[in-house]
Amino acid sequence: MFSNLRSLIFKLDPETAHSLAIKSLKFNFVPNILDEDKNNPLFKTRLFNQDLENPIGMAAGFDKNAEVYNSLFRLGFGFVEVGTITPLKQFGNPKPRVFRLVEDEALINRLGFNNLGAKNILNRIKSNDKNGLLGINIGPNKETDNRLKDYLECFETFNEVADYITINISSPNTENLRNLHHQNKLDKLLNEIDKKKKELKSKVPVAVKVSPDIKELEIDLISEVLLNNNIEAIVVSNSSDSTRDNLNNVQRYQKGGLSGKPIKEKSTKLIQKFFRILKGRVKIIGVGGVDSGRSAYEKFLAGADCVQLYTGMVFRGPNIVNMIKKELKELLLKDGVKNFTEIIGKKRSREI
Q1: Exposure string over 1-29, b if 16+ CB within 10 A, otherwise e
Q2: What is the pTM of this model?
Q3: What pairing do the DSSP bridges indicate for beta strands 233-236 and 283-287?
Q4: Which listed residue, of 32, 162, 194, 210, carries a Cα 20 to 30 Å from 247's Cα?
């Protein structure tokens, strides 16, 4: 069905098309997906001390206001991350701010943390019991004079309803946010988060979402900070504000974060570098260009414990999880493994 509708959907402005997708999921207009591999032992895993039916998650950015997470679980996602959510409601950057690069199977966005604000979204989550593992991605308001306070406020707001909380320091669309990758600034932020967690006597796991554009030297330093501050997971990675020269679409130099197929290799290499240092002490959630069983397989081989996607669904449609599982199943059976976790961090044994 999606293949028939895609040409019509792609005639719409990308942000309009996204709003339509949210409404379709919200009002259950998307048909039920037949999952032939539901509960297949090949895909079962654990994340943040919870059992998952599969390791394929929806990345933050799709369901910014926590409107359709249960609908996404019904589409087959093993876990869902909503947000990014800021303390106060904000519109984000001026439109147009999302660009579809069809030839490159990519998006560029400069949305700027548009969301309804923490308290509004908290009330929504409380009134809509989650049917799976729900992560909440948090960040600071654009006009705030105290970013640290914003992170702490959001953490306190959501710590009782989230299955995990992701600290987003990596959006290219909030000015100077990526400065928080610097060792001292990141250490201070995560230390304060850890203090707040202890103060609240909270057991909610914490993840940190990093940029794909970090320098080689920063990988060791960030890893050290994560380990020193009891961080359970790293999300590798966000969208890229570079990686444009080999793109085909005329809009390739639009300002914003590039996501989708063009950053697949970049994020996979970064996962591998973090895995070599962290050695399983911090879970790795791999993001960037996941749109097939092969791309997920490569992320697992590089060291990802789970993967997330968003742009892949824009181009492949709502059945993408089952498409990935079907292709991934063939690759895993050829490897002779009983569960995908057996290949995590393993060197490529054959060309795929």
Answers
A1: eeeeeeeebeeeebbebbeebbeebeeee
A2: 0.96
A3: parallel
A4: 210
3-state secondary structure the chain: CHHHHHHHHCCCCHHHHHHHHHHHHHCCCCCCCCCCCCCCCCCCEEECCEEECCCEEECCCCCCCCCCHHHHHHCCCCEEEEEEECCCCECCCCCCCEEEEHHHCEEEECCCCCECCHHHHHHHHHCCCCCCEEEEEECCCCCCCCHHHHHHHHHHHHCCCCCEEEEECCCCCCCCHHHHHCHHHHHHHHHHHHHHHHHCCCCCCEEEEECCCCCHHHHHHHHHHHHHCCCCEEEECCCECCCCCCCCCCCCCCCCEEEEHHHHHHHHHHHHHHHHHHCCCCEEEEECCCCCHHHHHHHHHHCCCEEEECHHHHHHCCCHHHHHHHHHHHHHHHHCCCCHHHHCCCCCCCCC
- Copy the structure tokens of residue 92: 């984000």
71, 170, 171, 259: which is the annotated catalytic residue? 171
Residues 6+ apart with CB under 8 A from 238: 168, 170, 171, 172, 209, 210, 211, 212, 257, 287
**pLDDT tens-digit profile of 110-129?**
999 999 999 999 999 999 99
Closest CA to 256 of 109, 113, 100: 109
CA–CA separation, 29 vs 119, rounded Å? Answer: 28
- Burial grade of 129 (CB within 10 A; 0-12, 13-18, 19 or more): exposed
24 catalytically annotated = no
For the domain made up of 38-343, the CATH class stated in words is: alpha beta
Q: Pick from 51, 49, 77, 50: which is nearest to 63 by CA?
A: 77
Query: Exposed, middle or buried: residue 141 (CB in 10 Å: 0-12, 13-18, 19+)?
Result: buried
Tell me the per-residue pLDDT of 292-341, one tens digit each, with 9 for 90 and over: 999 999 999 999 999 999 999 999 999 999 999 999 999 999 999 999 99
